[in-house]
């Protein structure tokens, strides 16, 4: 198996402050780095209005992360993000060049 490039976007609870959001992001990206992957870029968009209401939230904190790792590490990252109640929505895309 070889490493692939991924892009993760997640939306966190709008009540979280910047420090908590950074802590949450770093905590989850440890899943990638522990498995030998690398975090290439973290882009915190901050609080934005959602296109539609999700779990009674009208806003959310958006974070976009580009990372490189094995598919198993990416699957584990997705799994642990979905277990956290502070994370409203996640989306992971594989960005490898075709």
From TrEMBL:
GO terms for cellular component: cytoplasm; ribonucleoprotein complex; ribosome. InterPro entries: Ribosomal_bS6, Ribosomal_bS6_sf, Ribosomal_S6_plastid/chlpt, Transl_elong_EF1B/ribsomal_bS6. GO terms for molecular function: small ribosomal subunit rRNA binding; structural constituent of ribosome. Gene3D superfamilies: 3.30.70.60. GO terms for biological process: translation. The keyword DNA-binding does not apply. It holds the Pfam family Ribosomal_S6. CDD domains: bS6. Binds together with bS18 to 16S ribosomal RNA. This is Small ribosomal subunit protein bS6. It comes from Bifidobacterium mellis.
């Amino acid at each position: 198996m070889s490493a692939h490039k991924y892009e993760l976007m997640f939306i966190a609870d709008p009540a979280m402050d910047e420090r908590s959001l950074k802590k949450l992001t770093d905590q989850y990206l440890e899943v990638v780095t522990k498995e030998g992957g690398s975090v290439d870029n973290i882009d915190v968009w901050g609080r934005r209005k959602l296109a539609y209401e999700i779990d009674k939230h009208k806003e959310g904190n958006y974070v976009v992360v580009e990372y490189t790792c094995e598919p198993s590490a990416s699957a584990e990252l997705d799994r642990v993000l979905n277990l956290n109640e502070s994370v409203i929505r996640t989306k992971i895309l594989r960005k490898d060049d075709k």
